[in-house]
Amino acid sequence: MVKIREANADDFDAWLKLWKGYLGFYGTELDEAVTLTTWRRVLSPESGLFCRLAETEQGVVGFAICVLHEGTWVTRPLCYLEDLFVDDAARGKGVGRALIEAIIDEARQKAWSKVYWVTRTGNPARALYDQLAAVDDYVRYRITI
Predict the structure, then answer these.
(1) pLDDT-based confidence at 17, cuts 50/70/90?
(2) Nearest Cα to Cα of residue 63 among 43, 45, 86
(3) How far is CA 124 from CA 5, 51, 109, in A?
(4) Of 93, 139, 119, whose CA–CA distance to 1 is shortest?
């Protein structure tokens, strides 16, 4: 059984462990100030960021961080699922699906216009993503400042 819930201040240690696993999965490191700012933002009602946690009998085993934002082609908010991670030991047990489906359900309840995300072409989670959403033909460009 997977329970999806909103993150709260008491979840920091559990989230941080997963966050470090997430950064490791992508082979990157972030300054501690960025991590702490991200955590503060997901807890702030003034921020467009929010975090949902996946909890099982093993504790917190996954998270999704989303950015709710306005768009120019819609009148209702868009939800960008920016970060999704499930602990290695909990993978393949429906945790990732539960997180995404909970966000989709929340989007329907709150009348958001769309939920979307990007991932690397070689991400093994694409097997799940392909079951839940359509792949579009957009290419992402970026300039790091």
Answers:
(1) very high
(2) 86
(3) 25, 22, 30
(4) 93
Are the C-beta atoms of 138 and 117 separated by less than 8 Å? no
Residues 6+ apart with CB under 8 A from 91: none
User: Which helix (H) or strand (E) covers residue 132, if one does?
Assistant: helix 126-132
Kindly report each contact of residues 68-77 with a partner whose C-beta sits within 8 Å and lies 24 or more positions away, as own/partner. 68/112, 71/113, 74/113, 74/114, 75/113, 76/111, 76/112, 76/113, 77/110, 77/112, 77/113
Backbone angles phi, psi at 66, to 5 degrees: -120, 155
Residue whose C-alpha is closest to residue 107's, from 84, 81, 83: 81
Cβ-proximal residues to 23 (8 Å cutoff; 6+ apart), any chain:
29, 30
Q: Residue 17 is encoded by which pair of tokens?
A: 């462990």
Q: What is the length of the chain? A: 145
- State the pTM of this model: 0.95
